[in-house]
Amino acid sequence: MFRRLKEKLSNLKEGFNNLTRAKKIIVVGIIFLNLVGIIFLAVLTYSFLKPAKPVSSEAKNTPVSTEEQKNVPNPLNGVLYTKSEARVWQERIPLAVIIENLASKDVRPQSGLSKADVVYEALAESDITRLMGIYLSNSTELGPVRSLREYYLDWLMESGAAVAFWNSNQCVKNTAASLLGAKNLDQAEGGASAYWRVSDRPNPHNGYSSTDKLWELARSRGVNSLPNIESWQFKEEASPSARPATGKVNVNFTGVNSYSVEWSYDSSANEYKRSNGGAVHTDKINGEQLKTKNVVVEFVKGGAMSYNCGPGVNNRVFETVGEGRVLIFRDGQAVEGTWKKPSRAGRTKFFDKGGQEITLNRGPIWVEVVPVGAGVSYQ
């Protein structure tokens, strides 16, 4: 057998040697191509037949990172933040800052109102309104900072906020100290380090502060932490096709035009833009017109001046606890219902005529607190 094989190989060798050079090249090329084809076919077959590498249970159970998803709501106005963004405001207390609103170039435009999460507006003395911005998510300069009125305490306690103001009558100061303790950041009662006076406005309209200085003051007192806040209910905004083209909300506290408020609805942005006393109301810091996603109009009993703190201390008195009529504007629509506040520190909630809590849009909220009978109209 081996002899025959040897003879065949010898004959092949002799035949190959007798070929011309060109024919030898052709034969070698054919053999080479056949070998390459065989190797390629073997590799391809192996790759198809090789079993797939199993996925480990650890890999299957590894969660997808949600760090950059905006799914953490601000408890004050429902705006969504990423976890890393939310960690900033989750480590500090809300600040309720009393901002002056006298109809004067010495006061308007104010600083920092565009950065507030929630703003309350109510009458102070005479026909003059005063503002209280509540700040959690944004840092800003603030002013002019003025004196506190007692009824603002009832609204700020709903969010567990610290209060910042520049002095007040002794009756209100005593009440704030009693109710808030270390969270009472009165400039005149140990809070001077967080306040200063600016040179471009006359006294007393030149008192200023900043959220950063106030948070530092709260930190030094051991109260700069986020309290447990009962949030309002929020919803997704109406689609563009469901929004009206235009709309207005007019709030006239006492009939004096210099303090009347107009909110003009912008359908494309789905927000309301503020004018005060017939002029566009802006923020001094950025020049932007003040705007909001929600306008809440609370009708409350009272509002008359009263010497409730004794002779010489004449304050307005509002019935903030109980219930009353409310108008809520969002998505260019008006919803009428009832506000209810169970206690001085209890959360004010808003219910429609069917008894369901009214949902708000995520974003800034302005609460206009007006006496029963005040002129409020809308279209």
From TrEMBL:
Q: Give a single Pfam family match.
A: DUF3048_C
**Transmembrane annotation, as ranges:** 25-49
Tell me the superkingdom of the source: Bacteria
Tell me where in this chain the DUF3048 domain is found. 90-223, 250-367
UniProt KW keywords: Membrane, Transmembrane, Transmembrane helix
* Upper classification of the organism: Bacteria, Candidatus Woykeibacteriota
The name this protein carries in UniProt is DUF3048 domain-containing protein
